[in-house]
Specification:
Its main location: cytoplasm. The protein is built from 27 helices and 18 strands. By secondary structure, it is α+β, with helices and mostly antiparallel strands. A hairpin with a 2-residue loop joins strand 1 and strand 2. It is globular.
Length: 740
């Protein structure tokens, strides 16, 4: 392994290294060792250090450079100019969305101390004005001017600012902007043609302003209040809750006051969070997790973006000053949730580590400091006056229940990240001032490596995947244009207070997001002394008891004994949604060994006949798509759906999909009443499966209902992965097993 030959795929490179080294090291079971003892071995192992450092250097040499004529890891005005010219072409052809995308790339790649950056910002502001994104347009204009936009062109930009302010009905500010534009133009030696063009534009805006009334359009979102106020003894939780501890349940959350559906019982900012590789080009702010942002890029790399200069400066101070080199050589998308473990360490260092509790002896080693932070009452640390680091540090890791190979891979990942900080950043130069005790260099590195390992274990058990709703437009030559909503993953985060909820496959809460803030509401009424349960991924509405228990054992290392898993009468509930319909009584037909039997009348289904009917129905639907007339299309699509109704149980997920497809055909042809009936039918089926207060039940409603439900507090809610359709994949696959 002294000379590495790595495949092109970044993830595969890392997987191969982990497998090769862990196969050599797994002969000794270290799962019983402390984090300090484990990292004392791995971080000081020269052979392992050499291999991991060689890989880091190869990653840097491969990725931290100009990758093509249109992409670079840092800044390049040539590439910025290329994208700006592409944006100009699209703008001239009136493809404003595309021009905005290209101008954003130009902003990202432009050297922020040179002339290309303000020009790119100004071009993007023109696209934003056309897209009616006026606030973003104003931000870009402000940035362009503050970054040295040429004085001889600034009069145009000032008129654009006035136009934005008029669109926003800010009449006083608009008048001031017009005066400033006029005064600035007077200082320039404009040609007759340019002066005439300016005067005409100014006159048009003055006329536009005359008919506009000043309107306060402040749309600042409000965070909903806690039910019964915030709990001083349980930070980020409602006064209706209590954190308790028992031998059987460990730390857990119960109600000390009765709650009703919709009550807010947690509202928590993350201790740390990281954005995920974006799906469908949706950009997310690295600092606050706001989605669909008008990007403000890092001033050094082209891989990190923010929603504002404020978030950029906060991110730089908190984590990015140490992450920027790794972002340039694509380290973080390669290592998955280990990026969040690194972020936990960086956030802790940025805030400064707290003093040990009163009475603790002064630590002189990494081990002393580790033990001091652990030697606390793990319930009392949730009071408001306790430093947040204690709550993060004392989350469970499950290392004692983990298999040796996984544990070694986590230790190797922690070693690699410590080497990264040591060799590519100033982290260890900055660290001594952030720890209130004197440790030598070796102990500081050991403490950091051990904290990384501990965080990896904690995140596997306690991490949250954050999802948000995305509006998807689909164009089909036959079906026309349709708009739908789906959940997309955007971040992974850690919430120490919400992490105190135990799991149930039938939870009594629903998780939502506002940017990075987690807001937890009751999904049903809860009397006093009711335990509050989250769902860690496996849900009774999606998987059988055996499947759920297997997944929970694999990642969370416990055998689930929740009410849903113990309910023998409903153990096959999820099978209803893949069941056939009995031809005698229409009851659900499930597989019993090699036979398909009705669960009500026990009649056997002729499966060949059922499959043949489905095949005919699909053929009819294909004919409907190719139909020459609207009438023929309706007739064949309706016949196909009726045939499927005869074969599939009424709650079959494929029957819902078929109903949705038919509803789209009706809607696109103006048959809205027939479309609505099918949609209502689907909503009832979804509510039967997931419940009316679940994300699925709420998202399935009409846009009007959706807005009413989710903006009742003036808040645009974001959905958390622990309840959405992709929850199990998010929590299990991106958890960490089998690779960091």
């Amino acid at each position: 392994m002294s000379s590495l030959s790595l495949p092109e795929n970044c993830s595969k490179q890392w997987e191969i290294l982990l497998l090769l080294i862990s196969s050599e090291e797994k002969k000794i079971d270290r799962t019983g060792d402390s984090e300090i003892d484990t990292m004392n071995y791995f971080y000081k192992n020269e052979g392992i250090r050499q291999i991991l450092l060689q890989w880091l250097n190869q990653m840097k040499a491969t990725y931290a450079k100009k990758r093509s004529e249109s992409d670079t890891a840092t800044k390049c005005d040539e590439i910025a100019l290329l994208w700006r010219q592409k944006g100009n072409d699209k703008f001239r052809s009136n493809n404003i969305e595309a021009s905005y995308s290209y101008y954003s790339k130009s902003v990202t790649y432009a050297n922020q101390t040179g002339p290309m950056y303000p020009l790119a910002l100004a071009n993007r502001s023109a696209a934003l004005l056309r897209l009616k994104r006026n606030e973003d347009c104003l931000s870009d204009i402000k940035l362009a001017i503050s970054n040295g936009y040429p004085s001889e062109l600034r009069h145009k930009l000032l008129l654009r600012r006035a136009d934005c302010l008029i669109e926003l009905c800010r009449t006083v500010a608009a008048r001031e902007a017009l005066i400033e534009a006029k005064q600035h133009a007077a200082t320039l030696k404009l040609s007759m043609s340019h002066k005439g063009e300016f005067d005409r534009h100014l006159c048009d805006l003055e006329k536009k302003l005359e008919v506009v009334k000043d309107v306060d359009r402040s749309e600042e979102d409000e965070i909903p209040d806690f039910y019964m106020g915030e709990n001083e003894e349980f930070v980020s939780a409602s006064n209706a809750l209590q954190l308790k501890r028992s031998k059987a349940a460990g730390r857990h959350v119960v109600t000390k006051k009765a709650t009703k559906r919709g009550d807010v019982i947690f509202s928590e900012e993350p201790y740390a969070c990281v954005t995920l590789p974006n799906e469908g080009g949706r950009l997310v702010c690295e600092t606050c997790c706001r989605t669909d942002i008008n990007t403000v890029p890092c001033s050094v790399c082209s891989r990190s973006c923010y929603c504002s200069e404020t978030c950029r400066e906060h991110g730089l101070h908190t984590f990015h000053r140490w992450e920027c080199p790794g972002a340039q050589f694509d380290l973080f998308p390669t290592i998955g949730i280990a990026h969040l473990a690194l972020r936990v360490l960086l956030v802790s260092v940025s805030a400064g580590f707290p003093q040990l509790p009163l009475g603790a002896r002064t630590p002189t080693s990494a081990s002393d400091l580790f033990n001091g932070y652990a030697n606390v009452d793990n319930v009392q640390i949730y009071t408001r006056d306790t430093p947040p680091f204690y709550r993060m540090f004392n989350l469970v890791t499950n290392f004692d229940k983990m298999n040796s190979t996984d544990y070694i891979q986590y230790a190797l990942t922690a070693t690699m990240l410590t080497l990264y900080l040591e060799n590519f950043t100033t982290f260890f130069d900055d660290l001594p001032d952030k720890i209130p005790y004197t440790l030598n260099k070796s102990q500081l590195r050991l403490f950091s490596a051990s904290l990384l390992l501990r965080s990896l274990g904690q995140l596997v058990c306690n991490g949250h995947a954050a999802l948000s709703l995305a509006t998807i437009e689909e164009d089909d030559a036959k079906a026309g244009r349709t708009i739908s909503e789906r959940e997309v993953r955007r971040a992974t985060a850690i919430y120490p207070s919400a992490a105190m909820m135990n799991h149930s496959c039938d939870p009594n809460i629903v998780n939502t997001f506002y940017n990075s803030r987690l807001i937890v509401r009751c999904s049903r009424e809860m009397p006093v002394a009711t335990e509050v349960f989250n769902c860690y991924g496996p849900h009774r509405s999606r998987e059988t008891t055996a499947q759920r228990r297997a997944q929970l054992r694999a990642q969370y290392m416990f055998n689930c004994m929740c009410t849903a898993c113990l309910d023998t009468d409903r153990k096959d509930f999820v099978s209803l949604f893949t069941a056939y319909a009995c031809q005698t009584c229409k009851g659900p037909v499930l597989w019993c060994g090699k036979r398909a039997l009705c669960q009500q009348c026990h009649a056997e289904l002729q499966i060949d006949r059922a499959l043949s009917a489905i095949e005919k129905a699909e053929d009819l639907m294909d004919q409907a798509e190719r139909a020459a007339t609207v009438e023929e299309r309706f007739e064949k699509a309706h016949a196909a759906y009726k045939m499927k109704q005869q074969v599939w149980h009424r709650h079959h997920t494929s029957l819902r999909a078929a109903a949705d497809r038919l509803a789209r055909i009706y809607a696109d042809s103006g048959e809205f009443s027939r479309s609505v009936e099918l949609i209502k039918q689907n909503i009832q089926s979804l509510e039967y499966q997931f419940g009316s207060f679940s994300v699925e039940g709420m998202v399935s409603r009409s846009p009007q209902d959706h807005k009413e439900i989710h903006t009742a507090d003036g808040l645009e809610l974001r959905f958390l992965g622990a309840f959405g359709e992709e929850a199990q994949r998010t929590r299990i696959d991106s958890g960490f097993t089998p690779r960091p």
